[in-house]
Amino acid sequence: xxxxxxxxxxxxxxxxxxxxxxxxxxxxxxxxxxxxxxxxxxxxxxxxxxxxxxxxxxxxxxxxxxxxxxxxxxxxxxxxxxxxxxxxxxxxxxxxxxxxxxxxxxxxxxxxxxxxxxxxxxxxxxxxxxxxxxxxxxxxxxxxxxxxxxxxxxxxxxxxxxxxxxxxxxxxxxxxxxxxxxxxxxxxxxxxxxxxxxxxxxxxxxxxxxxxxxxxxxxxxxxxxxxxxxxxxxxxxxxxxxxxxxxxxxxxxxxxxxxxxxxxxxxxxxxxxxxxxxxxxxxxxxxxxxxxxxxxxxxxxxxxxxxxxxxxxxxxxxxxxxxxxxxxxxxxxxxxxxxxxxxxxxxxxxxxxxxxx
Length: 357
Fold this sequence. Notes:
The protein has helices spanning about 10-20, 25-65, 80-85, 90-125, 130-145, 150-160, 230-245, 285-305, and strands spanning about 170-175, 180-185, 190, 200, 210, 215-225, 260-265, 270-280, 315, 340-345. It is α+β, with helices and mostly antiparallel strands. It folds into three domains: about 10-145, no CATH class; about 165-210, SH3 type barrels (Roll); about 215-305, Alpha-Beta Plaits, CATH 3.30.70.100. The strands form three sheets. The protein has a five-stranded antiparallel sheet with strand order 4-3-2-1-5. A three-stranded antiparallel sheet has the order 6-8-7, covered by helices on one side. It has a two-stranded antiparallel sheet with strand order 9-10. Strand 3 and strand 4 (about 200) form a beta hairpin. Mean pLDDT is about 75; it is low at about 70-85 and about 325-355.
């Protein structure tokens, strides 16, 4: 049989007070004023302890991740060990990534623990929590449908950080914008382009991202020379300039491998294009390329190598005897042209042809 004073409660204090005093009001008062608050307080304390333990575990994991070894750079050459040494930029990026993930995990754990404690407290008060859980599930589904883009942005941000696709200081191309990453959030990524414009890109809208500063970079230089130049001599000069830059102490830590001359890349109307490539450290490809261009220009000038300049060839024909004066007749560029300016070629190269009379 159930107790008439505490029919649905399991509080031993209510039963004890009822048996000792025989006072129904005092038994119920002890249950609601002492037993229930103590149970709720115990649940809250238990939730606080669980939250503290979870946060402590997350902090240890993120701290270990922040202090972990740098990823090895897959390269060969004399500066590999230099790049494997810790550097402030990589350390700051790793710490920022670990702090972001730690903050996210702590927020999730706090929300889960708080939700469980609230439901258990409501159950202790005496309400049926089954309809509440069902309502919360329906509400969650409705919010999920209504905020699909927001959920998509957050999930994409989590995977961007977990997979280390890019970090603060990287130069990336996300299609709609290209620039240096200034902040990586769970919802948006902030980057600044070369003109100083700040772009805010939603993580869920990033379908493909190109990272120009991860592990290593490559500088590709297409060097034009005149058609009359000896390509073997030009190739030897380019190799020599690249080797001197490779041996330069100022740039030795920025160039991972000795520059290579890949040879003739294409024929342009102006001349022949020879391709030179350099494998560099991240974010150093542009400064190395500028220095390489300057040295090639100085060496070409010293060795008399001609760099093509825009040229225009103009052909003149004498006016046929008896031809009427006035506008040109026929096709000015065809074989039957009769005007003083018979043909004008498109811009092409380094020299201007002599006018033929």
